[in-house]
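User: I'm curious whether this sequence folds into something compact or stays loose and floppy. Could you predict its structure so I can see for myself?
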Amino acid sequence: MSFRVPVGGFIVVAGADARIPPGTGPEPNREYRSDGVGGAAWEGFPGQGLWEGEGLLVAHDLDLTNERALRQELGFGGDERPAAGELLARAYRAWGMGMADRLRGAFAFALWDPEARTLFAATDPYGIRPVVYAEVPDGLVVGSRIRQVLLHPDVDRRIDPDAVFQYLFFSAIPSPHTVYRGVRKLGPGHWIRWTPHGCKVGRYYDIRYRPDRTVDERYWRRAIPLEVRRAVGRFVPLSDPDRTGCFLSGGTDSSSVAGYYTRLAGRPARTFSIGFDEPGYNELDYAHVAARHFGTEQHDAFVTPGQVLELLEHLPHVYDEPFGNSSVIPAYYCARFAREHGVEVLLAGDGGDEIFGGNERYVTNLVFERYHRIPGLLRKGVIEPLLRALPARGVAHKAQRYVRRANIPNPDRFYSYNLLYEEGATRVFRPEFLDQVDPESFLRLARRHYRAAAPADDTDRLLYLDMKFTITDNDLRKVTQMTEAAGVRVRYPLLDRDLVDFTATIPPELKVKPGRNRYVFKRAMEGFLPREIIEKTKHGFGLPVGPWFARHPDLNALVRDTLLTPSARIRDWIRPEFLEELHQGLYGDSPAYAGGNLWVFLVLELWLGQAGRPGG
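Assistant: Here's the prediction. I'll summarize afterward.
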């Protein structure tokens, strides 16, 4: 198997002792200065590197959509093509720390200003190109990957129990945490600034929901296609059509991107889809509907259980911390398939659900919100006492469950369909582990984001949560890192900042209606998207983990031999009997539930095998 661990990125160290150990990384481009700064860059893709000039040292990972406009605004001549670092240096001299707000597209950079003795770093509004950092004695380490920050010998490498708990709650470790006590992620739309007087983190951008109810639904049905088309159009000039492709799951987002790219590029998009030989998971038929409708050049590949087994051993080398989204597997094989066809850039549809209201959870939330329209006296004085008095069977049991969940306030209710919430932490973890953690640590982060989105409507506040967690901390890490592991750069037209800000003005009651997600988006795209795709239920590139864990002998053996043995590292944290029960669930009524959760534990154990024992 040909596999490439993504190495592109940078590290910059500022402080009294700016150390980067020699011989680290695959031939990094390296700079050392006598004024307490060191920097290194590993060039994996265009836009990644290290540059020195204009009295500044600039490390960068850029994929901008407004580079041409920036060149003109900063005084470069029409024929000048400055290096990425030079463009950033000129922007810093012109706008100072306000430069991050002028950039569009994906970016991460760290900039050392020796005259001001200032290290300034920022990540793009949605964290597409991440920044991580660690405060060390008398200094700051900033990098684009955790592994690069860990090159500094003073960074605290102890595993953070709260981060492990959050991982098992969410399948990923949410910002600002990482699995290491001493390393933090910079939040999307944030900057960090270090001087000898201290370190400060700030925000230059956030999504602000401001629904415009002065116009009617007809306006939005006309405006949405235009804005989506403009967003995709910003990525067309960046891409060589011969070396550009589109992920195509057959959903509304990937189909919209592929369709508009085809029309704007003036030639069929090269579209790539993944299928599974598993009933209920294979949705290539919808990808084919989109491909025929738009006339794309369609390519299909299938993922097998054997390929899952093959890739699992490499995941700890791709991800610098545990990451439990099983869709990494089809994302990688789809990107590798595209690379084998000469593709160097893939356009992805991620973000559409979170800006247009496409997740079923938003619809479900409206169902629970209906309960609170009933007068409180009737709810608390009549309905709930009556339900408590009834035996928990049949319709009464369903009503009891509905009321119980409806009475959980958001955002807790939004995350209550969850292993730890459903099972209870004491059933999953050993008492010694729970003594080290805050069991509400993930929910505290969620509540903070939920409050930050106020005074937005509840639906928009849930969209905001998903933009922070599901997009930044999960989907983008999944798609970006696996696509780059296949040697392909990925871009996200639906995360164009102007488009996201536009969708924040759509009234939430038009995004999601009772029983209907993406309401106005689907109405707006009638006539452009095929009817079958507008009416289909959401699926994506989901992996049939449960059925394969249950039926494929080698995968089943991997689960048993990794998790159900006395030598399993996570048994220092997790009750062995719980893992046994979860494994038995593969053969019960909910193999998908059991398999999905076993995957999260399996990935954690495999990662610990590469990184060391718990607490190490």
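Summary: The chain has a mean pLDDT of 92. The CA atoms of residues 69 and 103 lie 10 Å apart.
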